[in-house]
């Protein structure tokens, strides 16, 4: 089971769109939209959010994200009214970026606290380095691969890469030119701007470094699906 997500928005279309995008990045995660009023108007509805929170929680907990202030109030009221309030948490995060980051982290099997942290961290600057590689000579494995897929490391390919190493006891860094990113962060990977034809260097350290390299190589060979 994975942590579920609820997208609380004043607009039903906005909530549905964000949920659709997050599900594309993490197909095994329950991402439920809870937007708009029952009559189709703009606003947030307590009962709709409560129902979504119940459906999204498959046993691992649920993270609620919101767009504007009153949506936060509605989400917090829902959490407070749950029979087990500690199974859910409302996170202050940019809605789209937070939903994508949280969904990918949940897809990797992380617990609710880690999923919430990923959503919140999406509001900060990406973990991208312009200084010499963090792992440096201490990296257990280094490989260089050329991106053949059409969109490089954008959106879904970045999510697939992050998911491929999620849960492994390995620190994975991806380097393009003078920039470097943590492979666990979809947003950091996307911020590299790696495109088709670019050669990237991947540095891995940890007990499961070899497994991480094997998974990444397989993903590249499949042109990121």
Automatic annotation (TrEMBL):
Function: Component of the dihydroxyacetone kinase complex, which is responsible for the phosphoenolpyruvate (PEP)-dependent phosphorylation of dihydroxyacetone. DhaM serves as the phosphoryl donor. Is phosphorylated by phosphoenolpyruvate in an EI- and HPr-dependent reaction, and a phosphorelay system on histidine residues finally leads to phosphoryl transfer to DhaL and dihydroxyacetone. General (non sugar-specific) component of the phosphoenolpyruvate-dependent sugar phosphotransferase system (sugar PTS). This major carbohydrate active-transport system catalyzes the phosphorylation of incoming sugar substrates concomitantly with their translocation across the cell membrane. The phosphoryl group from phosphoenolpyruvate (PEP) is transferred to the phosphoryl carrier protein HPr by enzyme I. Phospho-HPr then transfers it to the PTS EIIA domain.
Gene Ontology biological-process annotations: glycerol catabolic process; phosphoenolpyruvate-dependent sugar phosphotransferase system
Domain (HPr) ranges: 138-225
Domain PTS EIIA type-4: 2-127
NCBIfam families: dha_pts (TIGR02364), PTS_HPr_family (TIGR01003)
InterPro entries: DhaM, DhaM_N, HPr-like, HPr-like_sf, PTS_EIIA_man-typ, PTS_EIIA_man-typ_sf, PTS_HPr_His_P_site
Matching PROSITE patterns: PTS_EIIA_TYPE_4 (PS51096), PTS_HPR_DOM (PS51350), PTS_HPR_HIS (PS00369)
UniProt keyword Transferase present: yes
Protein known as: Phosphocarrier protein HPr
Reactions the enzyme catalyzes: dihydroxyacetone + phosphoenolpyruvate = dihydroxyacetone phosphate + pyruvate
């Amino acid at each position: 089971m994975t942590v579920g997500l609820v997208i609380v928005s004043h607009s039903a279309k906005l909530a549905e769109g964000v949920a659709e995008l997050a599900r594309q990045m993490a197909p095994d995660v329950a991402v439920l939209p809870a937007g708009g009023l029952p009559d189709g108007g703009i606003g947030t509805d307590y009962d709709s959010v409560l129902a979504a929170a119940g459906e999204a929680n498959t046993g691992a907990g649920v993270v609620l994200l919101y767009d504007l202030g009153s949506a936060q109030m509605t989400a917090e009221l829902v959490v407070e009214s749950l029979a087990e309030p500690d199974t859910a948490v409302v996170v202050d995060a940019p809605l789209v970026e937070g939903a994508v980051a949280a969904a990918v982290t949940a897809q990797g099997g992380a617990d609710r606290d880690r999923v919430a942290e990923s959503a919140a961290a999406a509001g900060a600057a990406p973990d991208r380095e312009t200084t010499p590689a963090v792992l440096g000579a201490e990296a257990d494995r280094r490989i260089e691969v050329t991106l053949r897929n059409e969109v490089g490391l954008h959106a879904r390919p970045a999510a697939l890469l992050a998911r491929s190493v999620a849960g492994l006891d390995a620190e994975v860094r991806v380097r393009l030119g003078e920039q470097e990113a943590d492979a666990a962060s979809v947003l950091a990977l996307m911020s590299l701007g790696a495109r088709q034809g670019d050669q990237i260097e991947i540095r891995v350290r940890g007990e499961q470094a070899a497994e991480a390299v094997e998974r990444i190589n397989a993903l590249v060979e499949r042109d990121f699906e």
